[in-house]
Amino acid sequence: MASKFASYGQNYTSLLHLFLLLSSVLTSSSDLSFNFYAGSCPVAEFLVRNTVRTAFSSDPTIPGKLLRLLFHDCFVQGCDASVLIQGNNTERSDPGNTSLGGFSVIERAKNAVEIFCPATVSCADIVVLAARDAVEASGGPVVEIPTGRRDGRVSVAADVRPNIIDTDFSLDKMIESFSSKGLSIQDLVVLSGAHTIGDSHCNAFDGRFKRDSKGNFELIDASLDNSYAETLMNKCSSSTSLTVSNDPETSSRFDNQYYKNLEERKGLFQTDSALMEDNRTRKIVEDLASDEESFFERWRESFVKLSMVGVKVGEDGEIRRSCSSVN
C-alpha cells in the first residue's frame, strides 16, 4: 500500500510540474488553450488521431515521418505549417527537406476536418497533433497539447538551412540552435529521443565512413561501435539512398532504447554520439537510459515546449483551406 501511495505522489508531482510549466507558457500565448476546438470543432482531435492510426496500420514508418515533419516545421518560422506549402523556393522545396514524409497524412486529416468544420482548424495544429498521436500510437506517452495555432503565410527555402540541425553538428552548435528556439540542453537530449523511431537515408551519416581505394567503406569515427559500424557499412555499401532504422533494437516502438544505444556507442548520427561524449549531456542520457518513465515525463514537457516555438495566433496567421498553399 505504501508503495502505491508513493507512486501516486510521484505522479501527482509530475502532473503538477507539467501544469505549472504549461500555465507559464500559455500566459505568453493567451490565444492558445486546451480544448481550443471544444465548441467550434469538437471532433478535430479525434479525426486527426484516427487518420494517424489508420496510416500507421498500413505503413509503420509513418510515426517517424510525422515526428520529423514537426521538427522541421517548428525550427523554421515556428510551428506554423509553413513546411507544408508547395511551390518554387518554399521550405518544402529546399534540399534539406526533400526527404521529409508524412505530408499525405496531414492532408488526409485536414480534408476530414474540413468536412465537419470548414475553415476552423489550422494545419499548424494538425501537424502538432499528428506528431503527438504518432508517438502515442508507437507506444509512447499521451501528451496534452494546447491548440489554437494559426497557419503562416510565408515559406522561404533560404530560411531552412540556417535553422535545421545537420547530422554532423557539434554539441555546441546544437545547443546554440536549440537555445535560439527557447529550448534548453535538457530539451535537446530529451527531444533527440525522437530517434527511437523512424528511418534515415545512408547519406545522412556516411560522413562517419570513407571509401578505400577499392570503393569499400572504412570507419573513421571512433565514437561508433565497431560491430554496429560494420552493419551500417554493409547496409549502405551499394547505395547511400538506402535507409536504415534510427534505432537498431526497437525501431518501431517509442521507448528509451535510444539512450541505451548511446551508452553502447550505437548512435546513428554524429549528433547522437555527441550527447554521450560531453559532460553537459552524458548524465541526462544515462538517467533516461535507466528510467523509461522519467523519459516519458520529460518528453511531455519538452514536446509541449517544442510545439510552442514561434507560434502564430490571432491576426499573425490564417486558417488555410489547403495545407499545401496559402489562402
From TrEMBL:
<keyword id="KW-0479">Metal-binding</keyword>
<feature type="disulfide bond">
    <location>
        <begin position="202"/>
        <end position="236"/>
    </location>
</feature>
<feature type="binding site" description="axial binding residue">
    <location>
        <position position="195"/>
    </location>
    <ligand>
        <name>heme b</name>
    </ligand>
</feature>
<dbReference type="GO" id="GO:0005576">
    <property type="term" value="C:extracellular region"/>
</dbReference>
<feature type="binding site">
    <location>
        <position position="76"/>
    </location>
    <ligand>
        <name>Ca(2+) 1</name>
    </ligand>
</feature>
<feature type="active site" description="Proton acceptor">
    <location>
        <position position="72"/>
    </location>
</feature>
<keyword id="KW-0106">Calcium</keyword>
<dbReference type="GO" id="GO:0006979">
    <property type="term" value="P:response to oxidative stress"/>
</dbReference>
<keyword id="KW-1015">Disulfide bond</keyword>
<dbReference type="GO" id="GO:0020037">
    <property type="term" value="F:heme binding"/>
</dbReference>
<feature type="binding site">
    <location>
        <position position="255"/>
    </location>
    <ligand>
        <name>Ca(2+) 2</name>
    </ligand>
</feature>
<dbReference type="GO" id="GO:0042744">
    <property type="term" value="P:hydrogen peroxide catabolic process"/>
</dbReference>
<feature type="disulfide bond">
    <location>
        <begin position="123"/>
        <end position="323"/>
    </location>
</feature>
<feature type="disulfide bond">
    <location>
        <begin position="74"/>
        <end position="79"/>
    </location>
</feature>
<dbReference type="InterPro" id="IPR010255">
    <property type="entry name" value="Haem_peroxidase_sf"/>
</dbReference>
<feature type="binding site">
    <location>
        <position position="78"/>
    </location>
    <ligand>
        <name>Ca(2+) 1</name>
    </ligand>
</feature>
<keyword id="KW-0349">Heme</keyword>
<feature type="binding site">
    <location>
        <position position="80"/>
    </location>
    <ligand>
        <name>Ca(2+) 1</name>
    </ligand>
</feature>
<keyword id="KW-0964">Secreted</keyword>
<dbReference type="GO" id="GO:0046872">
    <property type="term" value="F:metal ion binding"/>
</dbReference>
<comment type="similarity">
    <text>Belongs to the peroxidase family. Classical plant (class III) peroxidase subfamily.</text>
</comment>
<feature type="domain" description="Plant heme peroxidase family profile">
    <location>
        <begin position="31"/>
        <end position="327"/>
    </location>
</feature>
<keyword id="KW-0575">Peroxidase</keyword>
<feature type="binding site">
    <location>
        <position position="82"/>
    </location>
    <ligand>
        <name>Ca(2+) 1</name>
    </ligand>
</feature>
<keyword id="KW-0560">Oxidoreductase</keyword>
<feature type="binding site">
    <location>
        <position position="91"/>
    </location>
    <ligand>
        <name>Ca(2+) 1</name>
    </ligand>
</feature>
<feature type="binding site">
    <location>
        <position position="73"/>
    </location>
    <ligand>
        <name>Ca(2+) 1</name>
    </ligand>
</feature>
<feature type="disulfide bond">
    <location>
        <begin position="41"/>
        <end position="117"/>
    </location>
</feature>
<feature type="binding site">
    <location>
        <position position="247"/>
    </location>
    <ligand>
        <name>Ca(2+) 2</name>
    </ligand>
</feature>
<feature type="binding site">
    <location>
        <position position="250"/>
    </location>
    <ligand>
        <name>Ca(2+) 2</name>
    </ligand>
</feature>
<dbReference type="InterPro" id="IPR000823">
    <property type="entry name" value="Peroxidase_pln"/>
</dbReference>
<feature type="site" description="Transition state stabilizer">
    <location>
        <position position="68"/>
    </location>
</feature>
<keyword id="KW-0408">Iron</keyword>
<dbReference type="Pfam" id="PF00141">
    <property type="entry name" value="peroxidase"/>
</dbReference>
<dbReference type="InterPro" id="IPR019793">
    <property type="entry name" value="Peroxidases_heam-ligand_BS"/>
</dbReference>
<feature type="binding site">
    <location>
        <position position="196"/>
    </location>
    <ligand>
        <name>Ca(2+) 2</name>
    </ligand>
</feature>
<protein>
    <recommendedName>
        <fullName>Peroxidase</fullName>
        <ecNumber>1.11.1.7</ecNumber>
    </recommendedName>
</protein>
<keyword id="KW-0376">Hydrogen peroxide</keyword>
<comment type="function">
    <text>Removal of H(2)O(2), oxidation of toxic reductants, biosynthesis and degradation of lignin, suberization, auxin catabolism, response to environmental stresses such as wounding, pathogen attack and oxidative stress. These functions might be dependent on each isozyme/isoform in each plant tissue.</text>
</comment>
<comment type="similarity">
    <text>Belongs to the peroxidase family. Ascorbate peroxidase subfamily.</text>
</comment>
<dbReference type="InterPro" id="IPR002016">
    <property type="entry name" value="Haem_peroxidase"/>
</dbReference>
<dbReference type="GO" id="GO:0140825">
    <property type="term" value="F:lactoperoxidase activity"/>
</dbReference>
